[in-house]
Amino acid sequence: MALETELVEAIEAGAVNPQRWDLEALRAAGLGPCSETQIEEERVSVLRRQSARSRDVTKFSLAIMPTSQCNLACGYGGQAHRAGNMSPAIEDRALARVRGAIQRLRESHRSLSIGWFGGEPLLGFASIRRLSEGIRNLTSEAGVAWTSHMATNAVYLSADKARILAEESHLRAIEVTLDGPPTVHHASRPAKSGPQETFSRIVQNLRDIGDSSACDAIEISIRINVHQGNMASTPALISILEDNGFATPRFLINVVPVHDWGSSHAEGKVAAEAFQQWELELCNDLDLRGFTVSLFPTSPIETPCLATSLGSELIATNGRVFTCTEEVLSPGLDPSSSVGHVTLLDPALPRPAGTYDSWSEDLLTSPTAPCPSCAVLPLCGGACPKQWREGKTPCPTWKGTMPQRLDILARRLGLEPRDHKEAA
Ligand code: SF4
Ligand code: SF4
Protein backbone atom coordinates (compact mmCIF):
# COMPACT_ATOMS: atom_id res chain seq x y z
CA MET A 1 0.00 0.00 0.00
CA ALA A 2 1.44 3.38 -0.98
CA LEU A 3 1.23 6.18 1.57
CA GLU A 4 -0.08 9.53 0.43
CA THR A 5 2.60 12.21 0.20
CA GLU A 6 0.62 14.24 2.75
CA LEU A 7 0.74 11.36 5.22
CA VAL A 8 4.49 10.91 4.83
CA GLU A 9 4.93 14.63 5.37
CA ALA A 10 2.63 14.50 8.41
CA ILE A 11 4.67 11.69 9.95
CA GLU A 12 7.92 13.50 9.23
CA ALA A 13 6.52 16.70 10.76
CA GLY A 14 5.50 14.79 13.91
CA ALA A 15 1.76 15.33 13.32
CA VAL A 16 1.32 11.56 13.41
CA ASN A 17 3.35 9.88 16.09
CA PRO A 18 3.64 6.11 15.60
CA GLN A 19 3.66 5.72 19.39
CA ARG A 20 0.19 7.20 19.76
CA TRP A 21 -1.60 6.45 16.52
CA ASP A 22 -5.32 6.65 16.95
CA LEU A 23 -8.25 7.14 14.65
CA GLU A 24 -8.22 10.93 14.93
CA ALA A 25 -4.54 11.15 14.13
CA LEU A 26 -4.98 8.86 11.15
CA ARG A 27 -8.02 10.80 9.96
CA ALA A 28 -6.17 14.08 10.33
CA ALA A 29 -3.38 12.62 8.24
CA GLY A 30 -5.77 11.57 5.47
CA LEU A 31 -5.82 7.88 6.34
CA GLY A 32 -9.27 7.78 7.90
CA PRO A 33 -12.10 5.51 6.76
CA CYS A 34 -12.86 5.91 3.04
CA SER A 35 -16.28 6.49 1.53
CA GLU A 36 -17.81 3.89 -0.80
CA THR A 37 -17.10 6.23 -3.70
CA GLN A 38 -13.43 6.56 -2.76
CA ILE A 39 -13.11 2.77 -2.46
CA GLU A 40 -14.67 2.27 -5.89
CA GLU A 41 -12.44 4.97 -7.38
CA GLU A 42 -9.38 3.26 -5.99
CA ARG A 43 -10.50 -0.15 -7.31
CA VAL A 44 -11.03 1.27 -10.79
CA SER A 45 -7.70 3.07 -10.75
CA VAL A 46 -5.83 -0.06 -9.56
CA LEU A 47 -7.40 -2.23 -12.26
CA ARG A 48 -6.80 0.37 -14.98
CA ARG A 49 -3.12 0.42 -13.99
CA GLN A 50 -2.93 -3.40 -14.04
CA SER A 51 -4.78 -3.56 -17.34
CA ALA A 52 -2.40 -1.06 -18.94
CA ARG A 53 0.55 -3.10 -17.66
CA SER A 54 -0.99 -6.26 -19.12
CA ARG A 55 -0.98 -4.70 -22.58
CA ASP A 56 2.45 -3.10 -22.22
CA VAL A 57 4.97 -4.84 -24.50
CA THR A 58 7.75 -2.35 -23.75
CA LYS A 59 8.67 -4.42 -20.68
CA PHE A 60 9.77 -8.03 -21.07
CA SER A 61 9.86 -11.00 -18.72
CA LEU A 62 10.91 -14.32 -20.15
CA ALA A 63 10.72 -17.70 -18.48
CA ILE A 64 12.89 -20.38 -20.05
CA MET A 65 12.81 -24.14 -19.51
CA PRO A 66 16.29 -25.33 -20.43
CA THR A 67 15.12 -28.85 -19.63
CA SER A 68 11.86 -30.59 -18.87
CA GLN A 69 13.57 -33.37 -16.93
CA CYS A 70 13.70 -33.57 -13.16
CA ASN A 71 15.81 -35.69 -10.83
CA LEU A 72 12.98 -35.81 -8.26
CA ALA A 73 9.46 -37.24 -8.50
CA CYS A 74 7.18 -35.15 -6.28
CA GLY A 75 3.85 -36.77 -5.45
CA TYR A 76 1.97 -33.47 -5.69
CA GLY A 77 3.77 -31.93 -8.69
CA GLY A 78 1.29 -32.85 -11.41
CA GLN A 79 4.06 -32.44 -13.96
CA ALA A 80 4.83 -34.84 -16.77
CA HIS A 81 8.62 -34.76 -17.06
CA ARG A 82 10.00 -35.65 -20.45
CA ALA A 83 13.43 -36.56 -21.64
CA GLY A 84 15.50 -33.95 -23.38
CA ASN A 85 17.14 -30.58 -22.98
CA MET A 86 16.74 -27.50 -25.12
CA SER A 87 18.53 -27.93 -28.45
CA PRO A 88 21.01 -25.31 -29.73
CA ALA A 89 18.56 -24.52 -32.57
CA ILE A 90 15.76 -23.71 -30.08
CA GLU A 91 18.21 -21.73 -27.92
CA ASP A 92 19.06 -19.59 -30.97
CA ARG A 93 15.38 -18.90 -31.62
CA ALA A 94 14.84 -18.05 -27.94
CA LEU A 95 17.71 -15.56 -28.20
CA ALA A 96 16.11 -14.09 -31.32
CA ARG A 97 12.99 -13.41 -29.23
CA VAL A 98 15.16 -11.70 -26.60
CA ARG A 99 16.70 -9.55 -29.36
CA GLY A 100 13.23 -8.63 -30.62
CA ALA A 101 12.06 -7.78 -27.10
CA ILE A 102 15.12 -5.56 -26.49
CA GLN A 103 14.20 -3.52 -29.57
CA ARG A 104 10.76 -2.87 -28.08
CA LEU A 105 12.02 -1.77 -24.64
CA ARG A 106 11.12 1.72 -23.62
CA GLU A 107 13.95 4.24 -23.03
CA SER A 108 12.83 4.62 -19.43
CA HIS A 109 12.82 0.86 -18.79
CA ARG A 110 15.96 -0.74 -20.18
CA SER A 111 15.93 -4.00 -18.25
CA LEU A 112 14.97 -7.63 -18.69
CA SER A 113 13.92 -10.32 -16.26
CA ILE A 114 14.68 -13.97 -17.00
CA GLY A 115 13.33 -16.93 -15.02
CA TRP A 116 14.86 -20.42 -15.24
CA PHE A 117 12.30 -23.17 -14.74
CA GLY A 118 12.01 -26.90 -15.31
CA GLY A 119 11.72 -29.76 -14.52
CA GLU A 120 14.91 -29.10 -12.65
CA PRO A 121 16.64 -26.30 -14.55
CA LEU A 122 20.11 -27.32 -13.38
CA LEU A 123 19.81 -30.51 -15.43
CA GLY A 124 20.09 -28.08 -18.34
CA PHE A 125 23.10 -26.21 -16.89
CA ALA A 126 25.03 -26.21 -20.20
CA SER A 127 22.00 -24.74 -21.94
CA ILE A 128 21.65 -22.04 -19.25
CA ARG A 129 25.28 -21.06 -19.75
CA ARG A 130 24.92 -20.87 -23.55
CA LEU A 131 21.70 -18.86 -23.29
CA SER A 132 23.24 -16.57 -20.67
CA GLU A 133 26.21 -15.86 -22.92
CA GLY A 134 23.82 -14.95 -25.72
CA ILE A 135 21.73 -12.70 -23.45
CA ARG A 136 24.89 -11.03 -22.11
CA ASN A 137 26.01 -10.21 -25.66
CA LEU A 138 22.61 -8.87 -26.68
CA THR A 139 22.09 -6.79 -23.57
CA SER A 140 25.58 -5.32 -23.43
CA GLU A 141 25.33 -4.25 -27.08
CA ALA A 142 22.02 -2.55 -26.34
CA GLY A 143 22.92 -1.14 -22.90
CA VAL A 144 20.19 -3.14 -21.18
CA ALA A 145 20.42 -4.47 -17.62
CA TRP A 146 19.16 -7.96 -16.83
CA THR A 147 18.77 -10.30 -13.90
CA SER A 148 17.56 -13.85 -13.53
CA HIS A 149 15.93 -16.02 -10.92
CA MET A 150 15.51 -19.77 -10.60
CA ALA A 151 13.16 -22.31 -9.09
CA THR A 152 15.41 -25.28 -8.25
CA ASN A 153 15.45 -28.27 -5.94
CA ALA A 154 19.12 -27.34 -5.23
CA VAL A 155 20.36 -30.94 -5.15
CA TYR A 156 22.96 -29.94 -7.75
CA LEU A 157 23.32 -26.28 -6.72
CA SER A 158 26.78 -26.19 -5.17
CA ALA A 159 28.13 -22.81 -4.07
CA ASP A 160 30.52 -22.97 -7.01
CA LYS A 161 27.68 -23.44 -9.48
CA ALA A 162 25.70 -20.65 -7.78
CA ARG A 163 28.74 -18.35 -8.12
CA ILE A 164 28.99 -19.16 -11.85
CA LEU A 165 25.28 -18.45 -12.25
CA ALA A 166 25.56 -15.19 -10.29
CA GLU A 167 28.36 -14.05 -12.61
CA GLU A 168 27.26 -15.41 -15.97
CA SER A 169 23.48 -15.49 -15.63
CA HIS A 170 23.08 -12.51 -13.28
CA LEU A 171 21.24 -14.88 -10.92
CA ARG A 172 19.71 -12.78 -8.13
CA ALA A 173 17.14 -15.08 -6.51
CA ILE A 174 16.57 -18.78 -5.99
CA GLU A 175 13.56 -20.61 -4.59
CA VAL A 176 14.33 -24.01 -3.09
CA THR A 177 11.76 -26.45 -1.78
CA LEU A 178 12.12 -28.49 1.42
CA ASP A 179 9.04 -30.44 2.44
CA GLY A 180 9.95 -31.67 5.91
CA PRO A 181 12.71 -33.32 7.90
CA PRO A 182 14.75 -35.91 5.93
CA THR A 183 12.34 -38.87 5.99
CA VAL A 184 9.33 -36.71 5.11
CA HIS A 185 11.22 -34.76 2.46
CA HIS A 186 12.48 -37.97 0.85
CA ALA A 187 8.97 -39.46 0.85
CA SER A 188 7.47 -36.26 -0.60
CA ARG A 189 10.26 -35.59 -3.13
CA PRO A 190 11.97 -38.95 -3.80
CA ALA A 191 14.94 -39.15 -6.12
CA LYS A 192 14.01 -40.82 -9.39
CA SER A 193 17.23 -42.83 -9.48
CA GLY A 194 16.50 -44.60 -6.19
CA PRO A 195 16.89 -43.78 -2.47
CA GLN A 196 19.28 -40.87 -1.96
CA GLU A 197 20.20 -38.51 0.87
CA THR A 198 19.10 -35.39 -0.98
CA PHE A 199 17.91 -33.49 2.11
CA SER A 200 21.33 -33.06 3.74
CA ARG A 201 22.88 -32.26 0.36
CA ILE A 202 20.36 -29.46 -0.25
CA VAL A 203 20.83 -28.05 3.26
CA GLN A 204 24.62 -28.13 2.87
CA ASN A 205 24.37 -26.42 -0.53
CA LEU A 206 22.19 -23.68 0.95
CA ARG A 207 24.59 -23.20 3.86
CA ASP A 208 27.55 -22.95 1.46
CA ILE A 209 25.73 -20.44 -0.75
CA GLY A 210 24.68 -18.43 2.30
CA ASP A 211 28.31 -18.37 3.52
CA SER A 212 29.87 -17.51 0.16
CA SER A 213 30.54 -13.81 -0.40
CA ALA A 214 30.57 -14.54 -4.16
CA CYS A 215 26.87 -15.43 -3.82
CA ASP A 216 25.87 -12.40 -1.73
CA ALA A 217 23.73 -11.02 -4.55
CA ILE A 218 21.53 -14.13 -4.60
CA GLU A 219 18.40 -13.97 -2.44
CA ILE A 220 17.58 -17.39 -1.01
CA SER A 221 13.98 -18.37 -0.47
CA ILE A 222 13.08 -21.71 1.14
CA ARG A 223 9.64 -22.90 0.13
CA ILE A 224 7.75 -25.45 2.19
CA ASN A 225 4.89 -27.06 0.25
CA VAL A 226 2.39 -28.14 2.86
CA HIS A 227 -0.05 -31.04 2.51
CA GLN A 228 -1.71 -33.34 5.01
CA GLY A 229 1.25 -35.71 4.88
CA ASN A 230 3.86 -33.19 6.07
CA MET A 231 1.93 -30.68 8.18
CA ALA A 232 2.70 -32.34 11.50
CA SER A 233 6.40 -32.64 10.77
CA THR A 234 6.92 -29.01 9.72
CA PRO A 235 8.01 -27.92 13.25
CA ALA A 236 10.76 -30.56 13.11
CA LEU A 237 11.91 -29.13 9.78
CA ILE A 238 11.95 -25.64 11.28
CA SER A 239 14.17 -26.87 14.13
CA ILE A 240 16.61 -28.38 11.63
CA LEU A 241 16.69 -25.10 9.70
CA GLU A 242 17.31 -23.22 12.94
CA ASP A 243 20.15 -25.59 13.90
CA ASN A 244 21.72 -24.95 10.50
CA GLY A 245 21.73 -21.19 10.98
CA PHE A 246 18.86 -20.34 8.65
CA ALA A 247 17.07 -18.07 11.13
CA THR A 248 18.65 -14.96 9.66
CA PRO A 249 17.72 -12.32 7.08
CA ARG A 250 19.80 -14.30 4.53
CA PHE A 251 17.03 -16.91 4.16
CA LEU A 252 13.36 -16.18 3.48
CA ILE A 253 10.87 -18.85 4.55
CA ASN A 254 7.80 -19.21 2.35
CA VAL A 255 5.04 -21.63 3.41
CA VAL A 256 2.70 -22.64 0.58
CA PRO A 257 -0.34 -24.94 0.57
CA VAL A 258 -0.28 -27.61 -2.13
CA HIS A 259 -3.00 -27.01 -4.70
CA ASP A 260 -4.26 -28.74 -7.83
CA TRP A 261 -1.47 -28.26 -10.33
CA GLY A 262 -2.09 -27.97 -14.06
CA SER A 263 -4.74 -30.50 -14.95
CA SER A 264 -3.96 -32.80 -12.00
CA HIS A 265 -5.60 -33.11 -8.60
CA ALA A 266 -3.19 -32.78 -5.72
CA GLU A 267 -3.50 -35.43 -3.05
CA GLY A 268 -3.69 -34.47 0.61
CA LYS A 269 -4.64 -30.82 0.15
CA VAL A 270 -5.34 -29.08 3.47
CA ALA A 271 -8.69 -27.26 3.73
CA ALA A 272 -8.18 -23.51 3.27
CA GLU A 273 -9.43 -22.38 6.68
CA ALA A 274 -7.50 -24.99 8.62
CA PHE A 275 -4.39 -24.07 6.67
CA GLN A 276 -4.80 -20.34 7.34
CA GLN A 277 -4.86 -20.74 11.13
CA TRP A 278 -2.07 -23.28 11.15
CA GLU A 279 0.09 -21.11 8.89
CA LEU A 280 -0.55 -18.04 11.04
CA GLU A 281 0.71 -19.81 14.15
CA LEU A 282 3.72 -21.07 12.22
CA CYS A 283 4.54 -17.57 10.92
CA ASN A 284 4.27 -16.20 14.44
CA ASP A 285 6.61 -18.88 15.76
CA LEU A 286 9.07 -18.37 12.90
CA ASP A 287 9.10 -14.63 13.50
CA LEU A 288 9.70 -15.05 17.24
CA ARG A 289 12.61 -17.38 16.51
CA GLY A 290 14.31 -14.86 14.22
CA PHE A 291 13.44 -16.35 10.84
CA THR A 292 12.64 -14.04 7.95
CA VAL A 293 9.13 -14.91 6.93
CA SER A 294 6.97 -13.33 4.30
CA LEU A 295 3.77 -12.01 5.97
CA PHE A 296 2.04 -10.42 2.97
CA PRO A 297 3.08 -8.40 -0.11
CA THR A 298 4.12 -4.89 0.78
CA SER A 299 3.76 -3.19 -2.57
CA PRO A 300 1.04 -3.23 -5.24
CA ILE A 301 1.57 -5.86 -7.91
CA GLU A 302 1.79 -4.84 -11.54
CA THR A 303 -0.05 -7.90 -12.88
CA PRO A 304 -0.89 -11.16 -11.11
CA CYS A 305 1.40 -13.40 -13.16
CA LEU A 306 3.21 -14.13 -16.41
CA ALA A 307 -0.02 -15.28 -18.05
CA THR A 308 -1.70 -11.89 -17.70
CA SER A 309 0.96 -9.82 -19.45
CA LEU A 310 1.48 -9.59 -23.19
CA GLY A 311 5.10 -8.63 -22.47
CA SER A 312 5.78 -11.97 -20.75
CA GLU A 313 6.16 -15.44 -22.12
CA LEU A 314 7.54 -18.87 -21.36
CA ILE A 315 9.64 -20.80 -23.84
CA ALA A 316 9.44 -24.54 -23.20
CA THR A 317 12.28 -26.97 -23.88
CA ASN A 318 10.75 -28.00 -27.21
CA GLY A 319 10.37 -24.38 -28.35
CA ARG A 320 6.65 -24.02 -27.74
CA VAL A 321 5.67 -20.65 -26.30
CA PHE A 322 3.26 -20.59 -23.37
CA THR A 323 1.70 -17.90 -21.23
CA CYS A 324 0.75 -19.90 -18.13
CA THR A 325 3.53 -21.72 -16.27
CA GLU A 326 1.25 -24.53 -15.12
CA GLU A 327 0.17 -25.48 -18.62
CA VAL A 328 3.62 -26.37 -19.87
CA LEU A 329 4.19 -29.78 -18.32
CA SER A 330 0.60 -30.68 -17.53
CA PRO A 331 -0.40 -33.96 -19.09
CA GLY A 332 -2.98 -33.48 -21.81
CA LEU A 333 -2.54 -29.71 -22.11
CA ASP A 334 0.55 -29.54 -24.29
CA PRO A 335 0.55 -28.47 -27.11
CA SER A 336 -3.05 -27.24 -27.29
CA SER A 337 -2.52 -24.42 -24.78
CA SER A 338 0.62 -23.10 -26.47
CA VAL A 339 0.37 -19.77 -28.33
CA GLY A 340 3.00 -20.68 -30.89
CA HIS A 341 6.46 -22.06 -31.55
CA VAL A 342 9.73 -20.10 -31.58
CA THR A 343 10.56 -21.37 -35.05
CA LEU A 344 7.31 -19.97 -36.47
CA LEU A 345 6.78 -16.75 -34.51
CA ASP A 346 8.18 -13.47 -35.81
CA PRO A 347 10.81 -12.52 -33.17
CA ALA A 348 10.23 -8.84 -33.85
CA LEU A 349 6.68 -9.15 -32.51
CA PRO A 350 5.34 -9.80 -28.99
CA ARG A 351 3.88 -13.23 -28.43
CA PRO A 352 0.35 -13.87 -29.74
CA ALA A 353 -2.53 -13.18 -27.36
CA GLY A 354 -3.11 -15.78 -24.65
CA THR A 355 -6.15 -16.88 -22.68
CA TYR A 356 -5.58 -14.58 -19.69
CA ASP A 357 -4.24 -11.34 -21.19
CA SER A 358 -7.51 -9.49 -20.59
CA TRP A 359 -7.77 -10.61 -16.94
CA SER A 360 -7.46 -7.16 -15.30
CA GLU A 361 -9.74 -5.62 -17.93
CA ASP A 362 -12.30 -8.38 -17.26
CA LEU A 363 -12.16 -7.63 -13.51
CA LEU A 364 -12.87 -4.02 -14.35
CA THR A 365 -15.69 -4.47 -16.81
CA SER A 366 -17.41 -7.83 -16.34
CA PRO A 367 -20.32 -7.86 -13.88
CA THR A 368 -19.65 -11.55 -13.15
CA ALA A 369 -15.89 -11.19 -12.54
CA PRO A 370 -14.48 -12.35 -9.18
CA CYS A 371 -12.85 -10.07 -6.57
CA PRO A 372 -15.42 -7.22 -6.98
CA SER A 373 -14.98 -5.63 -3.57
CA CYS A 374 -11.82 -7.21 -2.25
CA ALA A 375 -9.79 -4.88 -0.06
CA VAL A 376 -6.48 -6.52 -0.96
CA LEU A 377 -6.96 -6.39 -4.73
CA PRO A 378 -4.01 -3.96 -5.20
CA LEU A 379 -1.68 -6.46 -3.52
CA CYS A 380 -3.16 -9.58 -5.08
CA GLY A 381 -4.59 -8.67 -8.49
CA GLY A 382 -6.91 -11.68 -8.45
CA ALA A 383 -4.18 -14.26 -7.80
CA CYS A 384 -4.71 -16.86 -10.53
CA PRO A 385 -7.16 -16.47 -13.44
CA LYS A 386 -6.72 -20.12 -14.37
CA GLN A 387 -8.00 -21.30 -11.00
CA TRP A 388 -10.95 -18.88 -11.07
CA ARG A 389 -11.93 -20.25 -14.48
CA GLU A 390 -11.75 -23.78 -13.10
CA GLY A 391 -14.24 -22.80 -10.40
CA LYS A 392 -11.68 -22.64 -7.57
CA THR A 393 -11.03 -19.74 -5.21
CA PRO A 394 -7.29 -18.96 -5.31
CA CYS A 395 -7.25 -16.22 -2.64
CA PRO A 396 -3.83 -16.14 -0.96
CA THR A 397 -3.85 -17.48 2.59
CA TRP A 398 -2.65 -14.17 4.07
CA LYS A 399 -5.92 -12.51 3.05
CA GLY A 400 -7.93 -14.07 5.89
CA THR A 401 -5.37 -13.33 8.60
CA MET A 402 -4.24 -9.80 7.78
CA PRO A 403 -5.03 -8.28 11.23
CA GLN A 404 -2.94 -10.92 13.02
CA ARG A 405 -0.15 -10.58 10.47
CA LEU A 406 -0.15 -6.83 10.98
CA ASP A 407 0.28 -7.57 14.69
CA ILE A 408 3.35 -9.65 13.93
CA LEU A 409 4.69 -6.80 11.81
CA ALA A 410 3.90 -4.33 14.60
CA ARG A 411 5.83 -6.48 17.07
CA ARG A 412 8.79 -6.56 14.67
CA LEU A 413 8.68 -2.76 14.68
CA GLY A 414 8.56 -2.65 18.47
CA LEU A 415 4.88 -1.71 18.73
CA GLU A 416 2.45 -3.38 21.10
CA PRO A 417 -0.36 -5.38 19.40
CA ARG A 418 -3.87 -4.69 20.68
CA ASP A 419 -6.61 -7.24 21.12
CA HIS A 420 -8.66 -7.21 17.91
CA LYS A 421 -12.00 -7.42 19.72
CA GLU A 422 -11.01 -4.49 21.93
CA ALA A 423 -9.84 -2.51 18.87
CA ALA A 424 -13.13 -3.21 17.07
S1 SF4 B 1 -2.77 -18.27 -14.56
FE1 SF4 B 1 -2.44 -19.11 -12.53
S2 SF4 B 1 -1.29 -20.99 -12.91
FE2 SF4 B 1 -1.14 -19.76 -14.78
S3 SF4 B 1 0.75 -18.55 -14.49
FE3 SF4 B 1 -0.96 -17.32 -13.73
S4 SF4 B 1 -0.98 -17.73 -11.52
FE4 SF4 B 1 0.20 -19.37 -12.50
S1 SF4 C 1 -7.65 -12.09 -2.32
FE1 SF4 C 1 -9.08 -13.36 -3.53
S2 SF4 C 1 -10.86 -12.02 -3.89
FE2 SF4 C 1 -9.13 -10.71 -3.25
S3 SF4 C 1 -8.16 -10.02 -5.15
FE3 SF4 C 1 -7.07 -11.87 -4.47
S4 SF4 C 1 -8.09 -13.56 -5.49
FE4 SF4 C 1 -9.46 -11.81 -5.65
Automatic annotation (TrEMBL):
**Protein name, UniProt field:** Radical SAM core domain-containing protein
Q: Which InterPro entries match?
A: 4Fe4S-binding_SPASM_dom, Aldolase_TIM, rSAM_sf, Sulphatase_maturase_rSAM
Q: Which organism is it from?
A: Falsarthrobacter nasiphocae
Q: What's an example of a GO molecular-function annotation for this chain?
A: oxidoreductase activity
The cofactor(s) it depends on are:
[4Fe-4S] cluster
